[in-house]
């Protein structure tokens, strides 16, 4: 059975592509004759990282409509974002006209574009959503909202046209109640070599991760400068942190998710893929709040509320670094977050799609 699928990606970060990479790998393992087309515009470097030279995976370089614009502090620029959506009705019409010229597919996957559900519904193409939050939920958490209320309501109508949503752990209950056409699935992860009993390194390998706008960089630099020669620790950090005498740099373009399992402690921002990997490999984490971001705040609240990670103030981390880190490292021998079966979300998704299409 020969199949064609188009996957719409929201172009906001690498996380969606990492998740879809896991699903694509499972699609190819399940359907022996399948061609997969990934539609995005901005994130070509991420696409190349995950899919370059892979057989029967093709880039559809085309604009998708979901966007937001940051201010100088890295938080959402309400006015600029609202201005972008002021012409949304015309943008939607043009987007539909453009994509309706390319409908030779057996099903769509949206991660996550509301417009893809409308396109699929209008043209009788099954359309599946994969996400741990929806954009109507995200933008409605800001006051004033950067997206006009009538557009958010329109997105809700489009998303109710989905053939089925797949929601992994920590999807907000309000989203699951709003979109009853959903199936809850386990964590979706592309990482391999699952090993629940990873050996502890003699010298603790500590990974620092900051938000894209480096809100905690000043404190991280102080910590690294102060403690980089401490014999009990070995520090790893992105290239954007700068250069130090006794640390290891993760060069620009490194996908951190693939490296999480190497470390004894992760300190940084609570991105969803980072969360998934620390759960999978039972690695303690200390998370810091970054810019105003409903997703990051929800992730952090979920982890703290379920006692799955620690929260620390950046200044306090600098002042009491050894005490805090040693306490976090001592927890690793007692960690047992999840079982191997809890990381097969991609298999659950593809099995359900196979039943429907």
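^ Assign residues to that structure.
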């Amino acid at each position: 059975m020969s199949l064609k699928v188009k996957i719409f990606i929201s172009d906001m970060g690498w996380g969606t592509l990492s998740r879809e990479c896991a699903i694509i790998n499972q699609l190819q393992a399940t359907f022996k004759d399948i061609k997969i087309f990934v539609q995005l515009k901005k994130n070509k470097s991420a696409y190349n990282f995950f899919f370059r030279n892979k057989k029967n995976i093709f880039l559809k370089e085309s604009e998708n409509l979901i966007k937001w614009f940051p201010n100088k502090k890295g938080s959402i620029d309400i006015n600029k974002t609202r201005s972008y959506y002021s012409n949304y009705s015309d943008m939607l019409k043009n987007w539909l006209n453009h994509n309706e010229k390319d409908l030779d597919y057996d099903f769509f996957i949206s991660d996550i574009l509301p417009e893809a559900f409308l396109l699929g519904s209008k043209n009788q193409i099954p359309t599946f959503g994969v996400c741990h939050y929806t954009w109507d939920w995200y933008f409605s958490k800001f006051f004033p909202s950067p997206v006009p209320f009538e557009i958010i309501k329109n997105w809700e109508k489009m998303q109710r046209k989905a053939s089925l949503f797949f929601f992994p752990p920590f999807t907000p209950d309000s989203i699951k109640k709003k979109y009853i056409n959903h199936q809850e699935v386990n964590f979706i992860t592309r990482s391999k070599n699952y090993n629940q009993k990873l050996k502890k390194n003699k010298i603790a390998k500590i990974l620092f991760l900051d938000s894209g706008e480096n809100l905690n960089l000043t404190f991280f630099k102080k910590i690294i400068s102060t403690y980089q020669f401490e014999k009990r620790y070995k520090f790893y950090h992105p290239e954007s942190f700068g250069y130090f005498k006794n640390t290891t740099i993760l060069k620009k373009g490194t996908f951190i998710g693939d490296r999480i399992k190497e470390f004894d402690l992760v300190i940084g921002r609570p991105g969803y893929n980072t969360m998934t990997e620390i759960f999978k490999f039972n690695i303690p984490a200390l998370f810091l709040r970054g810019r105003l971001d409903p997703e990051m705040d929800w992730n952090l609240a979920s982890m703290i509320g379920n006692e799955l990670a620690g929260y620390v103030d950046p200044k306090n981390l600098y002042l009491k670094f050894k005490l805090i880190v040693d306490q976090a490292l001592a927890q690793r021998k007692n960690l047992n977050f999840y079982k191997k079966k809890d990381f097969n979300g991609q298999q659950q998704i593809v099995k359900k799609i196979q039943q429907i299409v």
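The chain has 14 helices and 13 strands.
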